[in-house]
Amino acid sequence: MTTIQMPDIRYPFPSGINQHVNEAQEHVASWVAFYGLLTTEKAIQRFHKSRFAWLAARAFPNAALHELCIVADFNTWLFILDDQCDEANTGRKADYLKSIMAGFMDILQHNRPITLENGAPLPAALCSIWDRMRAIGSPAWRLRFIRSMDEYFTSCIWEAENREAGIVPTLADYVHMRPFTGALLADIEAIEIIEKVYLPQAVIEQPLMQRMIQACNNIVCWSNDLFSCTKEARVGDVHNLVLVLQHHRQISLQEAVNQAARMHNEEVAIFATLEKLLPLNGDERDYELLRYVSVLRSWITGNYDWSVSDTGRYGLEVKEVVAA
User: Fold this and answer.
1) What's the Cα-to-Cα distance from 119 to each of 104, 129, 131, 189, 315, rounded to whole Å?
2) CA distance 123 to 95
3) Is the pTM of this model over 0.85?
4) What is the dihedral of CA 154, 157, 158, 162, to 10 degrees?
5) pLDDT digits 0-9 by tens, 1-39
6) Which of 157, 156, 323 is nearest to 233 (CA)?
7) Residue 108, burial from CB neighbour count under 10 angstroms (0-12, 13-18, 19+)
8) Cα Rg, the chain, nearest whole Å
9) What are the counts of helices (DSSP H) followed by strands (DSSP E) for the chain?
């Protein structure tokens, strides 16, 4: 057994939680049960320990209850799908996964109605989420969200192809693909409909804002990689920053953890520096921009707080993890 010392992660951002968190958690539990998304007692117990609504409540601290339930359902759906891709045989069958993802895209692109009577649980559950999202999202927003989900599904297939071929991605390839495999870009698109932040796309597409979004994504995804590296090492999944570093640099797991933590901390510094350079004009548009950035900050702190305080998903202590 090897004891891994986890890095001391700190963020210069406030932490908060949505006042509707308990109601959202109750809703998610009922929603998951209604769609039959969990088929074993072990999976059900793991779900209750995970407390996925708490992640949504920390990431979207000012959302109303209806919107919070939508995004909590969405993230729960993503986690359940991710577990199937990462841990089940599904994740190693790229062609089979392509057919599944094509079905999901059909729901999003063509609003194809799927119910439990005429479809499987995951497609029916996605249809439930998408119906509610479409009701509160503009046509332009829907197109952006669909694009982000297409990128996520494509990245899942990329991982499956790697698993089938026994490929460990290069560090450059992994860093490039990780923002898509984490699906956080879809959650960032959801800021508009969940927190009602209406920021012009021209502002969001500015290079400074794009780099802040990238930094937020890297921070959240790489901290997840730190928390889950021993879990993923046990199941033989190399799609983790720590494990990629360990493999290609031929270093110990502890050294890889330390290097991943340094990369993570550099992104935190970049985000904090860029925040000081926000293009504020002294008018009401500043308010929307600052609200948008505050949700990015909430994702950073909320993901950490959920990982180390709220969820039993990773089975970790903050300071150390015992790895096989």
Assistant:
1) 11, 15, 16, 27, 34
2) 18
3) yes
4) 180
5) 567 888 888 899 999 999 999 999 999 999 999 999 998
6) 323
7) buried
8) 19
9) 15, 2
Using alpha carbons, select from 319, 318, 317, 314 the residue that is nearest to residue 229. 314
> Which pLDDT score, from 0 to 100, does residue 110 have?
95
pLDDT on residue 92: 60
Query: What burial class does residue 29 get, using C-beta atoms within 10 Å of its C-beta: 0-12 exposed, 13-18 middle, 19+ buried?
Result: middle
Query: Residues 133, 70: contact at Cβ < 8 Å?
Result: yes
Q: What is 161-221 written as a DSSP string?
A: HHHHHTPPPPHHHHHHHHHHHT-HHHHHHTHHHHS-----HHHHTSHHHHHHHHHHHHHHH
- CB count, 10 Å around CB of 169? 19
Q: Measuring CA to CA, which residue among 185, 222, 213 is closest to residue 292?
A: 213
How confident is residue 86, by pLDDT bands cut at 50, 70 and 90?
low
Q: Report the b/e string of 4-24 with b at 16+ CB within 10 A.
A: bebbebebebeebbbebbebb
Report residue 66 as tokens: 């209806």
200 Cβ partners below 8 Å, 6+ apart? none
**What's the whole-number mean pLDDT along residues 67-73?**
98
d(CA 52, CA 324): 27
Whole-number Å distance between alpha carbons of 213 and 210 = 5
Question: Is the pLDDT reported for residue 323 higher than 60?
Answer: no
Residues pairing with 5 in the sheet? 320
Tell me: the pLDDT tens digits for 37-58?
998 898 899 899 999 999 999 9
Looking up tokens 């969001």, which residue turns up?
Answer: 204
Residue corresponding to tokens 């891709």: 85
Say if residues 194 and 60 touch (Cβ distance below 8 Å): yes
Beta strands (DSSP E) in 103-172 are none
The Cα–Cα gap between 228 and 313 comes to 9
